[in-house]
TrEMBL record:
GO biological process, one term: jasmonic acid biosynthetic process
Name this polypeptide is given: allene-oxide cyclase
SUPFAM superfamilies reported for this sequence: Allene oxide cyclase-like (SSF141493)
GO molecular function, one term: allene-oxide cyclase activity
Length: 247
């Protein structure tokens, strides 16, 4: 019992403040012990908040020009392209799946033609795709197709389109996507039949991408059935084609 009482007395004496220390001194020590860690935490949080605030200001400035440009969905860039069938690619191939003597629903027409810059001074790639015959229109002496195809621009990437392809009048197709510098692209393209199926002129209205390479831009030769690519572009001379153009 004496030992137990001694232990209790010892514990009690440890928990009591020193009676010889002043109340002010005890309060100061208590204040120091209880608030200093909190103060340090508060300072740390302020530092962290300041760092986050600085980061939020820095990140937008670090965005590349391409990303900043692509954030402006209202911007429209025009791209002009001639598609010319020079009768050297075995295109088009007519697959008469309807097994009828006249063009009919279900007939397929795979095709691939050469692409030239709108100024006709550079070879820039090819088209590749397929047309599905939807309706023969005898009064127009032509046909209506649903077309799904792509425009390949060598190292610059490609643009895919889909929509109505009429052999007897101009149409608009949807731009459905792309790769390379055309990644994320959308918009529409106007197709003008100059001499079906040998000469076509396209005006792309592109959105959602950064500024196009200057090599692809520029004013076109006005479309007409008489237009022809330059001799250098036809011969794919180094100064008359884009880098690694798709052939």
């Amino acid at each position: 019992m004496a030992a137990t009482s001694a232990i209790r007395s010892s514990s009690l004496s440890l928990s009591l403040p020193n009676p010889r220390s002043s109340p002010t001194s005890s309060f100061s020590q208590t204040k120091s012990l209880s608030f200093n860690p909190l103060t340090r935490n508060l300072k740390l949080n302020k530092t962290q908040l300041g760092f986050s605030s600085q980061r939020s200001k820095i990140i937008p400035k670090s965005l590349s020009p391409k990303i900043r440009a692509s954030a402006r969905p209202g911007d429209v860039q025009e791209l002009y392209v001639y598609e010319i069938n020079e009768r050297d690619r075995g295109s088009p191939a007519y697959l008469r799946l309807s097994q009828k003597s006249v063009n009919s629903l279900g007939d397929l027409v795979p095709f691939s033609n050469k692409l030239y810059h709108g100024n006709l001074q550079k070879r820039i790639g090819i088209t590749a795709g397929i047309c599905v015959l939807i309706q023969h229109v005898p009064e127009k002496k032509g046909d209506r197709y649903e077309a799904i195809y792509s425009f390949y621009f060598g190292d610059y990437g490609h643009i895919s389109v889909q929509g109505p392809y009429l052999t007897y009048e101009d149409t608009y197709l949807a731009v459905t996507g792309g790769s390379g510098v055309f990644e994320g692209v959308y918009g529409q393209v106007k197709l003008q039949q100059l001499i079906f199926p040998f000469k076509l002129f396209y005006t792309f209205y592109l959105k959602g991408i950064g500024e196009l390479p200057s090599e692809l831009l520029g004013q076109p030769v006005p479309p007409s059935p008489a237009v022809e690519p330059s001799a250098a572009a036809k011969a794919t001379e180094p100064n008359a084609c884009i880098p690694n153009f798709t052939n």
